[in-house]
Specification:
The chain has 551 residues and is of the alpha/beta class. It contains 17 helices and 27 strands. The strands form seven sheets. A nine-stranded mixed β-sheet has the order 2-1-13-12-14-15-16-17-18, with helices on both faces. The mean pLDDT is 97. Bound molecules: ligand J2J. It comes from Streptomyces albireticuli. This is (2,3-dihydroxybenzoyl)adenylate synthase.
């Protein structure tokens, strides 16, 4: 059976057969996985949610049995609300126990969570709801000072497929999630292992974020494959410090990997040391994952902390390039092992191995999970480079998508004809097969792990009446690695505009705040390449030179 659906190209039959025969695809679904764990060890703790102010009141711990039962009851309630297999549900929850209750309820039905991030705002949410024709949107009431209910009301008025808004907390004019649960019902037509499980978000380089269709089979492989390489087993305690919906803390090995292993997940409401360190001590955390800027903050804070971090065994760092210098500080400061991870929501995940030589761990971004992850390093014309050459990373394998969801035109260029995904990353492969990330070809800014698609921001700036043209590029930053700089050409005769006004304009269009340009530079015209395109390379060089300390 070819798993192609009308919405996304699936794995060709010969590959699906191969991945099954090799034992990568185990024929499991997430719904059944939780059922099995709950049957095997109902009383073991699955999720610890310390509440918004850890250490205070409000710690909740759900066992596997409870999580399973809650997922059943919520699934029954969702079904009663008319949510069925294949429906899309935009999910925007912070790191709370309800995140998992909702996700597993949807998995059981076969409805597809769309993993929005807490930072997303009107522009992104409208797109996710409208583009996926979502039937429901799940939100917290007020989070980080932002009232999600008001946004939901607005989106609901605009998107007619959106029939339900479920709120964790005070529902306002919407439906309280706590009122949805019903007596469990038997679900006979749940999803199959090769069906889609959810839509993950692409970091993207185009005008709007692309959606990534992942199947139960392929994603579950990435989980147990990660568990083996990160030594996650039933004794592990995984701290989810990054936003739970992001692919890294979800799957590398992440919360879902931990649940697959029968381990314990501890949710951190914020990733800062003042919240995370006491949690590590109190809950006996053994493993967690961080983006490079946070890893640096943790290593700096560790020296002065009164908290005992001795249970922490492995710190995964990825999402953006971790400099060798910073990597060398991790073990001395935190007393744990470092594991670099270079992954992507589209699939391929690379890890340094826990038994790799230390030099490999601090100087490379790891090697693929699977023996069947195919790696090509090519030049601009797709010719394979000789061993050790630096070029574009292309990949194909048992958990890498063959195309984005409902994006045939984009897929034609984002994938090769024979199904390799063009990652947009520039890498070099060492003799041991480890990858070193050397740069990026895609038009994206990696703001300390948060991805900003240049074109998306340019489109928003171009909507400003005084703006003639805009080009967004990265600029170097000590803390985040990169920040965004927007170069702007004003219209002839337009009133002068200040940087702040451009930033405010973008913010008011309802964008996640990490996408608001960090800096705006006004110029008369853009430098051009030989064929008359905007030379972003020259713009990047110009802003880098400007920021460099005077010699
Ligand atoms: C350099 N660049 C990196 C690294 C990701 C695990 C870890 C990370 C992600 C992730 C993920 C990098 N060094 N160590 O999904 O499961 C950049 C690359 C890559 C892009 C993917 C996971 N780790 N990157 O970051 O989908 O440019 O996934 O193509 O958000 O992040 O971004 P994203």
């Amino acid at each position: 059976q070819h798993t192609t659906t009308q919405d996304a190209p699936g794995y060709p039959a010969e590959y699906a057969e191969r991945y099954r025969a090799a034992g990568y695809w185990r024929g499991e679904t997430f719904g059944q996985m939780l059922r099995d764990r709950a049957a095997a060890h109902p009383d073991r703790t699955a999720i610890v949610d310390p509440g918004p102010e850890p250490g205070g009141e409000g710690r909740r711990a759900w066992t596997y049995g409870e999580l399973d039962a809650r997922a059943d009851r919520l699934a029954a309630g969702f079904l009663e609300h008319g949510i069925t297999k294949g429906d899309r549900v935009v999910l925007q929850l912070p790191n709370t126990a309800e995140f998992f209750e909702v996700v597993f309820a949807l998995f059981r039905i076969g409805a597809l969570p769309v993993f929005a991030l807490p930072a997303h705002r009107e522009s992104e949410i409208r797109h996710f709801c409208a583009f996926t024709e979502a039937v429901a949107y799940v939100i917290p009431d007020v989070e980080a000072g932002f009232d999600h209910r008001a946004l939901a009301s607005k989106i609901r008025a605009e998107v007619d497929t959106l029939r339900h808004v479920f709120v964790v907390g005070d529902p306002g004019e919407h439906t309280a999630l706590r009122d949805v649960a019903r007596e469990p019902v038997e679900i006979t037509d749940g999803p199959r292992p090769d069906d889609l499980a959810f839509l993950q978000l692409s970091g993207g380089s185009t005008g709007v974020p692309k959606l990534i269709p992942r199947t139960h089979d392929d994603y579950i492989y990435s989980l147990w494959g990660s568990n083996e390489l990160c030594a996650v087993d039933e004794h592990s305690v995984y701290l989810c410090a990054l936003p739970a919906a992001h692919n890294f803390p979800l799957s590398s090995p992440g919360t879902l990997g931990a649940l697959y292993a029968g381990a314990r997940v501890v949710l951190a409401p914020r990733p800062s040391p003042d919240v995370a360190f006491p949690l590590i001590e109190r809950e006996g955390v053994t493993i967690t994952g961080l983006v490079p800027p946070l890893a640096l903050v943790w290593t700096e804070a560790a020296a002065a902390t009164p908290h005992d971090l001795s249970t922490l065994d492995v710190l995964l760092v990825g999402g953006a390039k971790f400099s060798e210098e910073a990597a060398r500080r991790v073990t001395p400061a935190l007393g744990c092992r470092l594991q670099q991870v270079f992954g992507m929501a589209e699939g391929l995940v690379n890890y340094t191995r826990l038994d790799d030589p230390y030099e490999t761990v601090v100087t490379t971004q790891g090697r693929p999970i699977s023996p069947d992850d195919e790696i090509r390093v090519v030049d601009d014309e797709d010719n394979d480079l000789p061993a050790g050459g630096t070029g574009h990373l292309l990949t194909r394998g048992p958990y890498t998508i063959r195309g984005y969801w409902r994006a045939p035109e984009h897929n034609a260029t984002a994938f090769t004809a024979d199904g390799f995904y063009r990652t947009g990353d520039i890498v070099r492969r060492t003799e041991t097969g480890h990858l070193v990330v050397e740069g990026r070809a895609k038009d994206q800014i990696n703001r300390g792990g948060e991805k900003v698609a240049a074109e998306e921001i340019e489109n928003h700036i171009l909507a400003h009446p005084s703006v003639h043209d805009a080009a967004v590029v990265s600029m170097p930053d000590d803390y985040l690695g990169e920040r965004t700089c927007a170069y702007v050409v004003l219209r002839e005769g337009a009133d002068p505009v200040k940087s702040l006004a451009i930033k405010k304009f973008v913010r008011e269009r309802g964008l996640a705040s990490y996408k608001v340009p960090d800096r705006v530079e006004f110029v008369e015209e853009f430098p051009q390449t030989g064929i008359g395109k905007v030379s972003k390379k020259d713009l990047r060089a110009a802003i880098a030179a400007r920021l460099a300390p005077a010699q």
